[in-house]
Amino acid sequence: MPRDVVAQASRPAAAGLPRAAPEGAHVWLHATCVQIGGVGVVLLGPSGVGKSDLALRLIDAGALLVADDQLRVEATPTGLLGRPAETLAGLLEVRGLGILRLPYCRVSPLGLVVELDAAKPAPRLPEPSTYPILGTELRRLRLDPRQASAAAKVRLALCAERIV
Question: Do the domain assignments include residue 119?
């Protein structure tokens, strides 16, 4: 699953959009990232929306932490890679417990962006969409992180065949 998911999800932007960034180009995102089956999942949203909490639920189900709060995304010839900030590597803020040290992945190919929005419900049958980073389009999923099924939806977005 990992290689073909990344290959499908991480491709240069379509015509009329910015070209893929040169190798070595990078950007810092206020985001959390976990790795599931060898694929990095970027969790985006405003402070307090539940990025770290969703990451914790995914980690509890077998994912590996890549970064919490600060994610470095860099362009390579094969796609985008995510890395933690050195000072925050292996650290996850868990509300009610504090900042905890966890096993983590130093670098992960990125394959999915999850935009978290607790205020706006996701459409029942959303159109496929992408999220541009450094001129590369990653598959995008929008969801409410407070839903009990949020972690399962992230895992399904990586591996299930979409019918409609």
Answer: no
Active-site residue, from 3, 30, 101, 146? 30
Residues 58 and 34 sit within 8 Å (Cβ to Cβ): yes
Contacts of 157 (CB under 8 A, 6+ apart): 112, 114, 139, 141
| CATH number (domain holding residue 138) | 3.40.50.300
Is pLDDT of 149 > 60? yes
Specify whether 155 is catalytic.
no
- Residue 83 domain-assigned? yes
Q: Is 69 a catalytic residue?
A: yes
* pLDDT single digits (tens) 85-99: 999 999 999 999 999
